[in-house]
From TrEMBL, chains A, B:
Gene name for this UniProt entry: mgtE
Matching Pfam families: CBS, MgtE, MgtE_N
Classification lineage: Bacteria, Bacillati, Bacillota, Clostridia, Eubacteriales
Keyword Membrane in record: yes
CDD domains per UniProt: CBS_pair_Mg_transporter
Membrane topology summary: Multi-pass membrane protein
UniProt-annotated location(s): Cell membrane; Membrane
Protein name as catalogued: Magnesium transporter MgtE
Molecular function per GO: magnesium ion transmembrane transporter activity; metal ion binding
Domain of life of the source: Bacteria
One Gene Ontology CC term in the entry: plasma membrane
Length: 446, 446
């Protein structure tokens, strides 16, 4: 069979009656069909309506939330039910999570009963916990079965494309007692009992675990999928690695965006209005903090009036503090996100930051002290510049540690607003140290 | 079987003769044993030396590079050969990549011949390309085989824990013609021919593709593993999702660190000397740029001398430019990393940035103009402040787009040094616009 590039796929979608193409579509990844549809713009929905329901369901699973909502509404309600019936429980849950409650009820009343029950349960979990990302489709077997029994069972029931490469061994109370990978199944002789080849030291995820922690566990162990259990050990669902890659990207992006002063959800290629909405609130917060920094300078107007060279060194001292603070802030925010900063090492890390801040502060402080001495041709001016720099950079490094750690303790995302706090602090302190010292020693400086 | 927590595992490692524990260790994930060993500090290597070679090899695969090198050297050369013989080709390649050439040759001469050949080939690929991350272990089958033939073959040969959940169908020239998942294998009846159930529209990765692009493809399609082929379509190896999660984290971390002015490899919990080495070079670069910014202010000393309120507004205008620039920089750096900024949409994105910069600039500009008017009690001062702010923020947004895009064109990582360029630019321009305008209109301002 030939593989299609995007242009060929667009051609195919446009010119042929999609009903005739079912067999071809089975071989093409739905995300490729979605890519081609996106490119077709005007004809996108006309073609989507002609595709078979199972394929529309697969394509829906690849869409972003907004795109999904828009696409769903082009179908009649009857067709919406049919499409949703083809989707997996976790995807239905994500889709319904964005709809009004009465519409959710109508959907749940019109899809497969068993699936509706599962979705109802999934809807009770928080979106960013293990329960919110798991799927409820998995294959349960009993430990008394043999390999040939199991193969017969799988051949009879089939395996959904959503299903993972593990079989889960449950006891009569639905409690997870073992795991068997398809790898172990196919390499064992037919008469082997499942109990002899299953793994019994099972790692499972508690249903209410935060998704960031789930991602760190997956990364640590490298499993393809992990079972999710309730507090009694009853198996509720599975989480698969492909959800994890998305979560890792989502959480990393959130950190990067927040550190850069952007709101989540701003797309590179989105409309201008989104960019303004994403950025302007942060800019306004920053404006308040910039005014506080400016006002600090204003406090020392009379000193600057007497010694205008202070205005030249002002941005150097404040700026370097900002840089040092951003460095330790970045390290700490990542350390928290990746679970590398723990209660056990917090004190040691703090101490390390203090010393590193001091060393870097002294190194940069000496350089600017010499610069100040030469520029102003006064040793004491160099001393004031140098001491202010050391104080500001050391403090900046400490603040870069304390702000995210404090936010974390308050259960606020450490990346959120950290950058604003840290740079405000370093600006205000930088100006205060430098201009304050200069005011104290003004008579020696003039 | 019981599962062990870290304390129990430490106890077990310390008190029992590890030889007696082989069966227990088979059920424990090597990363958990490594965690326990790390905690044991002094006894770490004594215990490691007592463990069976296959387990040491598994534990090695979980270690960081430095840790691996240190641990390797506690073994005699003979034991080193034995341990390495138990590792998979891609892990051996990573390990040997850090050794001196003559030591590499000695290793290759003392391990399994076939494996040595594979490792030699893997060593020829760049570390951050598909060839550098793939493993050469995979199961190849022929399309004429039936399901029962294949099961018999797998039962006879066994499947390594490293092997993926796909079987690869190769023709007589080793060219990849189809893929069969274990899922499809176990659900098909025994007499089914492989050619009837294999997928022929195979997505494969060219051996020289950059790892960042590989990660984006995995994320797009959600595959568990993908085959790597050369330019003739011959299959060379496989890349698995667990490598991809590591790469995503590595690439994201690199972006975050570089945007925050840190060098890669600085660990949260590392020694002070690492922190100084990671940060001081960036701080020195920043110092140069801060001095340029300060010198720009110095150019206008006589203006500030006449109108000291300018020193108060200076940091506000420069700071807000920095914030606006950092926002668009962050968005563009991520857009490039995630493959969302392309040739096709570059112009549209640029235009969006220009307009967003202008809108935000005007919004903030109006606020500070009013503030300036009130503070200085002179409408013309408000006008100067407002215009300087609009100019600086608009330009900052454009620079935030242009710097990473230009670095990318020059084949430099867009995250590298971008932040330094952008904030220097916005500082210098902010001071220049504001103090320049103030100098021009000085007689109306006093």
């Amino acid at each position: 069979m030939k593989t299609f590039n995007k242009e060929e796929l667009k051609e195919l979608l446009l010119t042929q009656a999609p009903n005739a193409l079912e067999e071809i579509f089975e071989e093409i990844h739905p995300v490729d069909i979605l890519d081609a549809l996106r490119d077709l713009e005007d004809d996108k929905y006309t073609i989507l309506k002609k595709l078979p329901n199972w394929l529309v369901a697969d394509i829906f699973e690849e869409m972003d939330e907004d795109e999904q909502q828009e696409a769903l509404n082009i179908f009649s309600e009857i067709d919406q039910f049919k499409i949703i019936n083809e989707m997996s429980s976790d995807e239905i849950t994500d889709l319904l999570g964005n709809l009004e409650p009465d519409r959710v009820d109508r959907f749940l009343g019109n899809i497969d009963k068993e699936e509706a029950e599962e979705v109802k349960e999934l809807l009770t979990y928080e979106e960013d916990t293990a329960g919110g990302i798991m799927a409820t489709e998995f294959i349960a077997i009993k430990e008394e079965m043999t390999v040939i029994d199991t193969l017969g069972y799988l051949q009879a029931t089939g395996l959904d494309a959503e299903t993972v490469y593990y079989l889960y061994v449950l006891d009569s109370n639905e409690v997870l007692t073992g795991i068997l990978s398809l790898r172990d199944l196919v390499t064992a002789t037919f008469d082997t009992r499942i109990s002899d080849i299953m793994t019994t030291s099972v790692k499972s995820i508690p249903v209410n675990m935060d998704q960031e922690e789930v991602a760190n566990i997956f990364q640590k162990y490298g499993f393809q999928a992990m079972p999710v259990v309730d507090s009694l050990g009853e198996m509720l669902g599975v989480i698969t690695f492909d959800d994890i890659i998305d979560i890792v990207r989502e959480e990393d992006n959130e950190d990067i965006y927040r550190l850069g002063g952007l709101s989540e959800g701003e797309a590179v290629d989105g409309p201008v209005i989104d960019s303004v909405k994403s950025r302007l609130p942060w800019l306004l917060v920053n404006l308040v903090t910039a005014i506080i920094a400016g006002a600090t300078v204003g406090l020392f107007s009379s000193t600057i009036d007497k010694l205008v060279i202070l205005a030249t060194f002002n941005p150097i001292i404040a700026g370097m503090g900002g840089n040092a603070g951003t460095q330790s802030l970045t390290l700490i925010v990542r350390g928290i996100a990746l679970g590398e900063l723990s209660k056990e090492n917090a004190k040691r890390v703090f101490l390390k930051e203090v010393i590193a801040g001091l060393i870097n502060g002294v190194a940069i402080g000496v350089v600017v002290a010499i610069l100040g001495l030469i520029w102003a041709n006064k040793p004491i001016f160099g001393l004031v510049v140098g001491v202010a720099m050391i104080l500001n950079m050391s403090l900046a490094t400490i603040v870069g540690y304390l702000v995210p750690v404090t936010l974390k303790k308050l259960n606020v995302d450490p990346a959120l607003a950290s950058a604003v706090f840290v740079t405000t602090f370093t600006d205000v302190c930088g100006f205060f140290f430098f201009l304050g010292l200069a005011t104290m020693f003004l008579k020696y400086l003039m």
